[in-house]
User: Fold this.
Amino acid sequence: MTKSSIQELRQISNRIRISAMTMTNHSKLGHTGGDLSSSDILTCLYFGGILNVDPENPKWEQRDRFIMSKGHCSGAFYSILATRGFFPAEQLKTFMDPLSMLNGHPDRNKLPGVEANTGPLGHGAPIAVGAALAAKMRGESWRAFVLTGDGELQEGSNWEAAMTAQHYHLDNLVIIVDRNRIQQGDFTENTIRMDPVAPKWEAFGFAVREVDGHNHEELLNTLESIPLSPGKPTCIIANTIKGKGVSFAENKPAWHHGVPTREQLALAAEELGVEVPW
Assistant:
């Protein structure tokens, strides 16, 4: 494991943000808003000493399993994997190019550090439940983490997985909801009303905690407390802002799919206090 200071985590998060935006600018495709909202969560998992993984041995049997269920936010996910050392950062320059390892959605057959192919929403939680159950059946100590979008919770497969998780007392399972309140096209509450989210997970037998998804210290304190309740799976509802850190993208549905220009990249880098990487 690796663990950075809170200030270092903030800097890493912002570098992940500008990296993802640069990739989207390159490909003219991507999901900028979700990349920016999920960057702090990913940073805490991979650089906060939470995930027990080994970039030198991505298939290490005792590793924790992380499933990026919101696979459309691959820009942030690829950037965090490259920064953690799973593959050379130079590969980020090929994002969505023909024959690139870096597809628009993660592919476990092409890229080290990717546990499961995701993109079609609602798949990550069932896969993570299966991984957590396998660990229990084998008597292993590794855990399964999954990051979902909030609009993604409109998929019924999540709730089938939740029922299974509580039935088998999977306290080695952690579902993190990136609650940025915007999905493709509009705000979640205008699409299918979701609030209140926490009582839904509690009703399905989860121990639930709501956190500020951009507060690294609060995120780490919660992640370090897992399982929140022995014998129960954990759900962390991370309240976030779509497009976090970039003024022209924050809380704007258009930036679910927004593609920054080079001028916007420069402005974003200035606001984030980092440099455009390439």
In short: The radius of gyration is 17 Å.
